[in-house]
């Protein structure tokens, strides 16, 4: 049985299919039509709801896309929709009032999604600035307002505060207690289609041995589209978004559970790899970063792979588990060719290990038609270790240049052992042309991909050569 | 007379009438309506080739799929299988024998649930005999240049003689991309059958009357049998002017056939694949000018990708030519349109309706002259602005030109001269230091003609009811798509009676109340419907005054409408009381209003007339930073000064200006429609088609209305239309990007960016002007 809280009601579902979406459940099953379908692929945010879940005994609420959130993945969660929002007096919530006052809605179709994303921001950030607001809204499209009045509303609501009197603050302990009383695992089916939520990782390992052909569903930011766009059956679906959440930092390495989301990983990035903070905030929108997992981003084998180029450059290894057996391999060896990975039936990615040893210059770059919430046309990770003016080691990996994320072997060779100079990077910029034969598609032409790949080396040099010229566009206001 | 001091009950900045419903999720869109019992769902099956003859259709698997009730093809259309808005009979509801583009609706599945219908639609097996397809305007031209609709020529003077005599001449080509509307709410129709031949449609169209006629034709019934209702749209932008017809017809046909309600809502991808977009163009232009940069003669050919059918392409390509001058006087001019038929979805109305594709060419011509003569583009603009009395290429004199003042004010308030110098200095420093970030700045004007160019559309109706409790119900022919039309019209009526907005309910737009309406389009909603509503209110007011004169033995001069009351000499009577009294005295308390725009006329064959009642003006100054290593950019700042005449609601008007600016910027930057060789649109969802985000809007965004402006013509409250004109302010961003690009070759060469200026086009232009990639040196 799937159990969760929907606003102030407990839901118990004995029948559900693995591909049932939260959005359809809300709109068709419960008449909660405030949550809208704009795209059914997690890109427009009109379906944004808050999902609260237990994390170390406390409630964490995050905006997610209901369109690609599977109902099964709501087990043991608190789903909060626009209908539940209210102010301390039972009237408009401060976010809603600010949206009215600042003329933040025109056609109004995207508005509930914006309100929910801004509500999520308001709860977690006191008095957010413009860049924080924009970052929180990367996953919400508005076609009418040009966003300016929405940002004004968010600023005003942020300044007004009032979080301590908010209904979710007041309900929090009670909600946590109710969720804690629900069992961790679940197993439901409908019409022969089955959704399994293992209770823990060992249970997952057993389930996958029993069902080696199961569809493993973590954040569903990709699998969701298999269902909503391709209408693919995913039964049996094994839901793992609640598992493998650990992050362990030791002197030598960082071990990340495969179920860690981008948002959960962000503090690790901020602390240990601040050089690539910008890159991380260009992956998906906020809702996607709250759902998508590091393990899922690797295991789905995308040729672009927003995190693999960086992780490969950092020398990451992954732990694959089959039953009780584990094996470890360098991340780049996991990607065999387009659409094929070194993963056996029943096996799953359990842990990603990032080494911390040695000092090096680190960078990650991406290019996309739109800066935020757009899949890369090309992305790259750099780890360059310089000793006494000589490049001691160079690991450079690209996404979008081949059928798999891959290292730029010839460019690396042009760097390694050479002096850390402009001429060396110019040579690498020329060499990288021979590393890849990229495609032309709607994201970019092959020529452009080549040109940008080469320029990434030039950018790396300009950023690390100690010159005083600005190298990157500045997104902050007033600078 | 204490009521004299009361503040007027309606404040100009009143929020959108649905704002509270929007923010609480209680505003109902068509998909949110509670369905009648037994409602069915339709889904469309789309063609999988760009051009081909249907050899056979095997729909057995579709029929056998779970929940399927019916599969309909062209043969199931009881009336006319056509939704051409101009009666050309070239726009089938369901393809009949031939498919003309990839994604054309071929059949419809009717099932118990939407998911069942959608799944079943994928099971069709259709054999096509593929035929050659042409996808873009130039290929279409090479293949014989078949036109979807007749082209137009606007000519004044003798440019063929003037061009060779001009001291300088430039010829160029400009490719201008299209744009998907990306309204957040997709197309949707719900049809509920009634008795006899009746059917009621709930939908999200900008043109209920046209849906009414299309459904009537498709069913083979008179228009009086069909009622079309629109409470609100989740965005329209022109994309729901004609494109909703097909969906409504399919739902209506199925509803009548099965006597059950039928809803049809395509998935976002199908919506984007199967419905028309902004026309893309290739434009060849020639300009002759003197050494000072004054334009002497212009010639140009606008080649448009119209898609497979006529739709609105004639009016759209006409409007491109009407705006080929933007704000500039061309002493000798000839511009020609070539609306080419292509095997792509039939392009349609989109905010600006071809105008932006004219305006941007005028601005390209200005850039060409500026770079060729080594001047600031703004100086060239100012030197070529229309003066009142000068004739447009369509022989309408410009009589309300306010751009000199507007440009001067904006130039001053945005500190243009100083900031332009700072941009030039920055770029010089970066050139010397090898820095990759360049800056650009541009200040561009817009002049936009207001009126439907099909003169007969410039009419509107309204219906005002006052009930005996003093509450007012207001209905008019315009549709609410977010622009705040209902709010503005309610303000007009509230002001007429001097009552509060809480007394007025604007109901859904319905063909039952106001017939024979025009599309809510061409920015005309408030101009037309506001006047019609005012006419209705004034009729009732006249009757109330007559009644009060008789009842109180007063003269009309002794009667005044003060806030929520009526003063008769020294007696102050609550408005509700007046209404009650009038009712008891058998005074008619409702009225139908009507309006037709005066003065306008147009002769297309001769290319002469006065197609526009007046012009709306505006200008924007944008500054950008461009990363010349990747082609990415940010908009550092944008300043806008826009003319809406005397604004009825400055808050809503400002919202239109801000939104239009960002939408116009999207058209010219990140929004790219990309078809593969097979004619498949590959950017057909927000994952691949990228409209601007909050973080893409200008970092500093100063938007002002020109408060001193007043419409010279007698429009509603002397306001001006606002929906479309500010869309073209986004051109300032496009040109600022070009300015930054031009810096890599010391501004000697016009960057000639094609649109949209995706990062790829920007980087490739940088490398073209630079003669290769940035090469690192030194070290």
Describe the structure.
The complex is a heterodimer of chains A (479) and B (779). Chain A is an alpha+beta fold and 479 residues long. Chain A folds into three domains: 2-84 and 169-239, Beta-grasp domain (Ubiquitin-like (UB roll)); 94-165, [2Fe-2S]-binding domain (DNA polymerase, domain 1, Orthogonal Bundle); 247-464, 2-Layer Sandwich (Enolase-like, domain 1). Chain A is 32% helix and 23% strand. Chain A contains 17 helices and 20 strands. Chain A has helices at residues 22-30, 94-101, 111-124, 130-136, 148-160, 167-180, 201-210, 223-228, 262-272, 277-280, 286-291, 294-299, 308-313, 331-334, 409-415, 422-431, 446-464, and strands at residues 2-6, 9-13, 48-55, 58-65, 77-80, 186-190, 193-197, 215-217, 237-239, 247-249, 253-257, 317-322, 325-330, 335-337, 340-341, 348-355, 361-367, 378-387, 390-399, 406-407. Chain A has a five-stranded mixed beta sheet. A five-stranded antiparallel beta sheet of chain A has the order 10-11-16-12-13. A four-stranded mixed beta sheet of chain A has the order 6-7-9-8, with helices on one face. In chain A, helix 2 (94-101) crosses helix 5 (148-160) and helix 15 (409-415) packs antiparallel against helix 16. Chain A is globular. The model of chain A has no long low-confidence stretch (mean pLDDT 96). Chain B is an alpha+beta fold and 779 residues long. Chain B folds into three domains: 39-132 and 187-265, Aldehyde Oxidoreductase, domain 3 (Alpha-Beta Complex); 281-452 and 604-770, Aldehyde oxidase/xanthine dehydrogenase, molybdopterin binding domain (Aldehyde Oxidoreductase, domain 4, 2-Layer Sandwich), CATH 3.30.365.10; 459-596, Aldehyde Oxidoreductase, domain 4, CATH 3.30.365.10. In chain B, 29% of the residues lie in helices and 24% in strands. Chain B is built from 19 helices and 29 strands. Chain B has an eight-stranded mixed beta sheet. A five-stranded mixed beta sheet of chain B has the order 7-15-14-13-8, with helices on both faces. A four-stranded mixed beta sheet of chain B has the order 16-27-28-29, sandwiched between helices. In chain B, helix 14 (485-497) runs parallel beside helix 15. Chain B is globular. Chain B starts with 18 loop residues before the first helix and ends in a 9-residue tail after the last helix. At the A-B interface, helix 2, helix 3, helix 4, helix 5 and helix 16 of A face helix 1, helix 3, helix 17, strand 29 and helix 19 of B.
